Amino acid sequence: MWALMVVAAFAVYGILVIAWQLWGWLVKNHEQGKSVYFIIVTENAERDIEMVLRRIHHKCLSIEYPTYVCLVDAGSTDLTVAIAERMARKGLPLDILRAQTLDEALTIAGGYGESAGSIRCIYQVKRDEGLTTIVR
Prior knowledge:
Strand content: 25-35%
Largest sheet: 5 strands, mixed
Radius of gyration: 23 Å
Number of domains: 2
CATH topology of the largest domain: Spore Coat Polysaccharide Biosynthesis Protein SpsA, Chain A
Structural class: alpha/beta
CATH superfamily of the largest domain: Spore Coat Polysaccharide Biosynthesis Protein SpsA, Chain A
Shape: elongated
CATH architecture of the largest domain: Alpha-Beta Complex
CATH class of the largest domain: Alpha Beta
Number of strands: 5
């Protein structure tokens, strides 16, 4: 009788251990699929782009998920892209994409980083208009 109870107790214990390990594996793999994308659509934003990129980079350092930053330029005629390229050369992880028009840039931004489990923040920076949140 006692032997049967001991075997049953070990069986229940084994099932609980397996369930606990399976739960931990599921949680870990679910969180690994998450990523955070900061997408900045710019148009002649040379005055503000460096500050915006520095703030976003600082924010990325405090996020526990993988983070990606992408600048989509809508045909700027000022130094916006040059400033962003300089910051990328200095170590800021940044993808720079170019578009001809604002509509094209917004379309590109809307599809960037679109995957299951991703969190996307799309911002627009235009001359004399500052930072505008498009999607959060």
